[in-house]
Amino acid sequence: MNEIEQTLTLKNVRPTAMRILIYKYMAEKKSALALTDIENAFEKAERTTLYRTLKTFEENGIVHQIDDGTHVSKFALCEPGCNCEIDQDLHLHFHCSQCDTTICLTEHKIPHINLPKGYIAEDVNLVIKGVCENCSTH
User: Fold this and answer.
1) Could you list the residue ranges forming a coiled coil in this record (predicted)?
2) Nearest Cα to 100, choosing from 134, 55, 49?
3) Contact 91, 59 (CB under 8 A)
4) Rounded Cα–Cα distance for residues 24 and 76 (Å)
């Protein structure tokens, strides 16, 4: 069993051929991807299959969804050991206004915020917008 198959199996996701291909594609890209990015890479695959794969990955802590302010949901692979808990695994994201790329800045954690009594956090998202290293050097 290869590394991707082991990762999926450990997250209780059956490692089908399509799931392995999508995981591998996302790992190679190193940036957050929209469903349309994945559709373009797998033109012959059914859109619903791709969407269901992303949702299965999200539900099982393999990817997390990012709202980068573009009104298009993006997905990025979780780091090993991540469980996508609001209290533990929050990190910054960077969205480049020139190339429209969104990346996870996993080494920069968002500190836990104590909300007032009666408030319940359901999602936390911190996106820094600007020009990425690649665009700023051209």
Assistant:
1) none
2) 134
3) no
4) 12
Strand order through the sheet with 33-34: 33-34, 74-77, 63-66
27-47 pLDDT per residue, tens? 999 899 999 999 999 999 999
Which residue from 67, 65, 129 is spatially nearest to 98, judged by alpha carbons? 129
Here the tokens at position 118 are 């009666």
Residues whose CB falls within 8 Å of the CB of residue 77, separated by 6 or more in sequence, listed in order:
23, 26, 27, 62, 63
> pLDDT of 59-85, one tens digit each?
998 998 888 888 899 999 987 666 555
Instruction: Return the structure tokens found at 82.
Output: 């991540």
Structure tokens, 26: 């996302």
Angle at 57 between CA 53 and CA 59, to 5 degrees: 115
Per DSSP, 71 falls in state: S
